[in-house]
Automatic annotation (TrEMBL):
Aminotransferase class I/classII large domain location: 37-378
Record keyword Transferase present: yes
InterPro entries associated with the record: Aminotrans_II_pyridoxalP_BS, Aminotransferase_I/II_large, AON_synthase_class-II, AONS_Archaea/Proteobacteria, AONS_Proteobacteria, PyrdxlP-dep_Trfase, PyrdxlP-dep_Trfase_major, PyrdxlP-dep_Trfase_small
UniProt GO BP: biotin biosynthetic process
UniProt record similarity statement: Belongs to the class-II pyridoxal-phosphate-dependent aminotransferase family. BioF subfamily.
Protein's name in the database: 8-amino-7-oxononanoate synthase
Keyword annotations: Biotin biosynthesis, Pyridoxal phosphate, Transferase
Residues the entry annotates as binding substrate: 18, 130, 350
Amino acid sequence: MKDLRTALEQRRRDGLYRSRRLAESPQRPERRIDGRDCLSFCSNDYLGLAAHPQVVAALQTGAQRWGAGSGAAHLLAGHTAAHHALEEELADFVGAPRALLFSTGYMANLGVMAALPRRAGRLFQDRLNHASLLDGARISGARLVRYAHLDMQDLQRRLAMAPAGERLIASDGVFSMDGDCAPVEALAALATEHAAGLLLDDAHGLGVLGPQGRGTLAQAGLTPDADIMLMGTLGKALGTFGAFVAGSEALIETLIQQARSYVYTTAPPAAVAEATRAALQLCRDENWRREHLQSLVARFRAGAAELDLVLMESSTPIQPLLIGETRAATRMSEALEAAGILVPAIRPPTVPEGEARLRISFSAAHTQADVDRLLEALGSVMRR
Ligand SMILES: *Cc1c(COP(=O)(O)O)cnc(C)c1O
């Protein structure tokens, strides 16, 4: 295994080495990480629900009622009334006939891709789609066609050129490293025009965008139907863990029969489903979380523009600062950390070469004062 060491050392020399930090407190803006207190801007806990007392209480009560583990796959004996109720509530939330829980978003995307387009089919994906959608394409065996980021003309051209057969278009709703949004209406129109299905991965839009946080589709006035499928994750804005796919009755039944990442895995704990039900209720009821989040983003963008920072085109809580060179981004992230502020540097291969960035993400649990502290630290790091 000498080759592993060589490759690891090369990775370190290239400034691409990844390592984990050790958190010693719950997911909140003020966190104890690697032995020191800091202000964190790197979670996907957009609504501030991960450590919310009502969500934690639902997890506790759920564990008392259902135990710690589900003990089996959904198709054996792992599917409880808690999972079932959550599926019904999620379907109702996004306006779909049905929803199906998966253990993670990664597995949900793999499951849909593996079950849907047959080998002879074509899968059209935005170049910047999440890794799980791209990995799903490999598993499906269908031909992968990648189109330029958000470029509907490019997609249209590629659809028109493709031979007849099954087609599926897949796109992130909100792009995880850029914070920009897919043109959902145009995607849906192209899908209809070219007899393609559409899978929208709304990991970063659900809970954040649209009325009551119903997501990117709802913001565009659309709901899942026979041709539009929605994948939503529960570990981001909803603060818990897991994912779901929403769509037609026939889609959900197909996934239950054929999605291997659904069939061959243990159902998530029922207590987690109970916690998610509590989180979903808070998400629906508390609009102030989304309003506050928007005001934090506005304050940050105004302040960053004053500092002449290079913002990206984003109105979501994901606010990347484009730095460019990988080492420069790493150095800035380290300098911020020395000032007690946690902002991760995102490097290739997660983003294209030469587009390293600081990925700042906001949560409804942040205060305006937190944003000011971040801006102050960014200002002093930039001056150096
Ligand atoms: C996080 C993420 C996923 C994976 O979801 P998990 O539940 O964390 O596995 C899928 N797609 C996108 C766009 C994501 O950001």
